[in-house]
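We were asked to recover a plausible sequence for a given structure. The inputs and outputs are reproduced exactly as logged, with field labels preserved.

PROBLEM: sequence recovery
POSITIONS: 877
GIVEN STRUCTURE:
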């Protein structure tokens, strides 16, 4: 497989103005007829070749302007169809045959259970018919779908239905027309027998839009939340960005077999069932929020992605980073903004930073790739969103809105670049974005090293800041970034007023860190302050400041920035866990430093006055993944043992406070997935998680009681998860009983069974691999269903570090086998689950060698897909 470079971008030789498609769906030998109106691009030489993309297609016929193309005028290979001797304008008719029933890659047209559906982004359309399958080729689509009427009463595509009727042999057809020009990646077709939930929305200009959700009949009771989220998102985009929906129908189809969360096809979103169905008894609070976020994300793409799309796939973050930023702000407005922000930081720190430090590190606008499917990454999405957030903060609300208005208006109906986006922001604000641009083309997580010095005589406080960014593949030295560092100074009684260079800057200021090292001198500082840095996580960087434990306690208690308060607790916990890890390695037992216990005691004592969700987050220890990420060479056993020891100390020392807090947050109110209730449940379940560590029967009884009395899946899962992870002497049989009960109760609900699989695959107790192998033999497992693979294989390898990294290398061997198996079935999923092995350089030689050996074993397997090849080959160099 070859590398594709951004610098080689060229417009195509031909454009497509109209696309007419006819699908004749069948159990095998589905036929696709296409008729394309094409024009040679201005400036392209007469007779220039037309190179169409096409993969795994059987070409049945090819006509230009109604005449068969002579064999000598075209050639076909595995990836392309090349036609020569074409006029400046012509109609190309092409008939191909495909086999969706055998398509396990879930890309192109495929079958999921009893339905046909498509996934075209990024390059799936070429598995449907020969086409210019690139996002800068935008065309108007008219699509006719023909299928058996009894089996597939529902025939959908993008836009509006314009014709329908019955045909011979029990077949019927529907014709759809999408008035908006679009690239092929936004095309979709569905043929199914599903139930419909319908609602409507009146747009700000008074147009009525029909909202349609298609699900299996048994799931009709799980649609309210997605529908409400959709309506909220539509209204929010009108008020926040002035963007209105543009078609008369908005459809969402839920499918079981899907490679990711959902897809924003114009007017016809296709969703993984896990991102649309939600109901109190079967769905956790976290999953409710995910449904809300994904429904909004796909809706927001209608403007940021569909109306204004990407010129080429190097610009992917143009639509994804911006849309994640938009959905994040929406979710923040619908729920607790601080909690949402902390969750974003947790994801960045525990996973995106690691990606940015590994062999697949890439800028949010990459310069090259082998397989674009590998670039739907946390970097493109989450770091991309952080970069848009920094722009929004640099401009302020009003100018940012002016910038997005200009962007949407100027580029409506076009395929553009991240440069075009930034240029709009520069134009409306008059700001110079040249240094800021490095965020788009440089990979790696920048690091800020900060120190502070108080001068009592001068009443000055000087912050010395230096920045660095580690080398990443192909980028050794990097020019310095512009890093906005939001800063405040915390004094005994709260925030101190800030004066910089004689200018009064209120209580918080954004320092523009734009040099390798520089100083900021605050004046009239009346006491030695504790600096509150990178407030609300103002830039996606690592920050080092040598805080004492007293200073961290002070920030946790007195800062008014929720992110900084939480982060102070995290830093305190990291220090304490790391000192336990050192002792563990030396075979010593030292007591757990009391500062953390003091801080949690204070939080619990004041839980009623605080945001309960924040208390829950602040009292929870950093994840093992984050602790690993912070270590130069991670000793997972030591970190895990240390973390567990600190958890147990908290449980033992604060037992009665935890129990009080638990009981005072048991609610009898009717379930609602709103911020207040979610906060209360998260605090209660954080307490439960600690209490479950206590080595006595009452801990098990508490779990059993919650499990039996729960009227919602959040509480059920909290109890089940704590039970599964419990290894007290009496836990074994209670655990098996609970697992069996759960399965028997929910075996008909695929999404609930997935949670049952996840909780077991993620269990950190010894023997993890054997449990996972047994789960894969269970009837509930299916290697062809990505949700099952993610629930078992990916959870074990990516979220069960202690078992996956077992010193005998068995976890790595297991993953290599699964990747090789999935490489043939579903290359995208195969490539995605390799991630844990790519991090081998972060481990001690004994482990690193075994991880490398597993990568080499994959590399040696036959028929490697470009997806798997890229990840493995880059990891081994
Ligand atoms: N745009 C799709 C992702 C497509 C992934 C293709 N491998 C979903 C989204 O980001 O909204
Ligand atoms: Zn997206």
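RECOVERED SEQUENCE:
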């Amino acid at each position: 497989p070859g590398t594709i470079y951004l610098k080689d971008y060229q417009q195509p030789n031909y454009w497509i103005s109209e696309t007419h498609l006819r699908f004749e769906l069948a159990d095998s030998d589905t036929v696709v007829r296409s008729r394309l109106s094409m024009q040679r691009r201005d400036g392209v030489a007469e007779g220039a070749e037309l190179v169409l993309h096409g993969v795994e297609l059987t070409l049945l016929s090819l006509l230009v302007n109604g005449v068969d193309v002579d064999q000598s005028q075209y050639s076909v290979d595995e990836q392309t169809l090349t036609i020569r001797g074409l006029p400046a304008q012509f109609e190309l008719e092409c008939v191909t045959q495909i086999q969706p029933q055998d398509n396990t890659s879930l890309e192109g047209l495929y079958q999921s259970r009893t339905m046909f559906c498509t996934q075209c982004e990024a390059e799936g359309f070429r598995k449907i018919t020969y086409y210019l399958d690139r996002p800068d080729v935008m065309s108007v689509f008219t699509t006719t779908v023909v299928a058996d009427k009894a089996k597939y009463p529902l025939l959908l595509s993008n836009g509006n239905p314009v014709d329908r009727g019955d045909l011979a042999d029990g077949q019927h057809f529907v014709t759809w027309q999408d008035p908006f020009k679009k690239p092929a990646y936004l095309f979709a077709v569905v043929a199914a027998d599903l139930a419909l939930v319908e609602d409507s929305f009146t747009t700000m200009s008074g147009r009525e839009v029909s909202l349609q959700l298609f699900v299996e009949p048994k799931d009709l009771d799980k649609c309210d939340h997605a529908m409400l989220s959709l309506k909220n998102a539509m209204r929010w985009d009108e008020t926040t960005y002035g963007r209105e929906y543009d078609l008369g129908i908005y459809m969402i189809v839920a499918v079981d077999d899907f490679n990711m969360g959902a897809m924003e096809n114009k007017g016809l979103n296709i969703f993984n069932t896990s991102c649309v169905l939600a109901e109190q008894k079967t769905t956790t609070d976290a999953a409710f929020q995910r449904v809300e976020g994904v429904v909004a994300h796909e809706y927001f793409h209608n403007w940021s992605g569909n109306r204004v799309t990407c010129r080429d796939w190097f610009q992917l973050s143009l639509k994804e980073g911006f849309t994640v930023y938009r959905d994040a702000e929406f979710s923040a407005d619908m729920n607790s903004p601080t909690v949402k922000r902390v969750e974003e930081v947790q994801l960045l720190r525990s996973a995106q930073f690691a990606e940015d430090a590994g062999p697949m590190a890439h800028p949010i606008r990459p310069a090259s790739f082998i397989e674009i499917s590998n670039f739907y990454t946390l970097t493109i999405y989450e770091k991309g969103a952080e970069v848009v957030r920094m722009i929004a903060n640099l401009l302020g609300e009003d100018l940012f809105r002016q910038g997005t208005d200009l962007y949407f208006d100027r580029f409506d109906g076009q395929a553009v670049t991240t440069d075009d986006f930034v240029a709009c922001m520069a134009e409306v604000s008059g700001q110079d974005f040249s240094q800021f641009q490095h965020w788009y083309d440089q990979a790696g997580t920048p690091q800020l090293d900060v120190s502070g010095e108080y001068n009592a005589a001068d009443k000055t406080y000087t912050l010395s800041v230096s920045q660095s960014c580690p080398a990443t593949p192909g980028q050794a030295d990097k020019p310095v970034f512009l890093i906005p560092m939001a800063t405040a100074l915390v004094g005994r009684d709260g925030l101190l007023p800030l004066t910089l260079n004689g200018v009064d800057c209120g209580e918080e200021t954004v320092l523009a860190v734009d040099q390798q090292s520089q100083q900021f001198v605050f004046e009239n500082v009346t006491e030695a302050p504790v600096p509150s840095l990178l407030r609300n996580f103002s830039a996606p960087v690592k920050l080092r400041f040598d805080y004492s434990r007293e200073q961290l306690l002070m920030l946790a208690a007195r800062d008014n920035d929720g992110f900084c308060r939480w982060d102070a607790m995290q830093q305190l916990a990291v220090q304490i866990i790391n000192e336990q890890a050192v002792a563990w390695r030396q075979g010593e037992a030292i007591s757990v430093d009391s500062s953390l216990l003091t801080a949690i005691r204070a939080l619990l004592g004041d839980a009623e006055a605080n945001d309960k969700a924040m208390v829950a987050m602040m009292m929870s220890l950093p994840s093992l993944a984050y602790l690993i990420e912070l270590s130069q060479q991670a000793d997972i056993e030591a970190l895990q043992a240390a973390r567990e020891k600190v958890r147990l100390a908290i449980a033992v020392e604060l037992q009665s406070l935890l129990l009080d807090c638990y009981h005072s947050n048991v609610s009898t109110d009717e379930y609602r997935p709103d911020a207040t209730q979610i906060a209360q449940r998260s605090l209660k379940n954080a307490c439960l998680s600690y209490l479950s560590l206590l080595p006595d029967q009452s801990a098990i009884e508490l779990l059993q009681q919650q499990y039996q009395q729960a009227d919602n899946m959040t509480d059920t899962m909290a109890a089940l998860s704590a039970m599964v992870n419990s290894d007290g002497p009496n836990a074994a049989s209670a655990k098996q009983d609970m697992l069996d009960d759960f399965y028997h109760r929910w075996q008909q609900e695929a999404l609930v069974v997935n949670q049952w699989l996840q909780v077991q695959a993620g269990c950190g107790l010894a023997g993890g691999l054997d449990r996972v192998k047994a789960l894969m033999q269970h009837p509930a497992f299916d290697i062809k269903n990505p949700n099952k693979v993610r629930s078992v294989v990916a959870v074990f390898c990516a979220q069960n570090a202690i078992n996956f990294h077992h010193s005998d290398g068995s976890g790595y061997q297991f993953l290599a086998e699964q990747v090789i198996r999935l490489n043939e079935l579903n290359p995208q999923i195969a490539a995605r689950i390799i991630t844990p092995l790519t991090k081998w350089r972060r481990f001690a030689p004994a482990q690193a060698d075994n991880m490398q050996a597993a990568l080499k074993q994959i590399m040696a397997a036959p028929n490697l897909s470009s997806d798997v090849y890229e990840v493995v080959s880059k990891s081994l160099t």
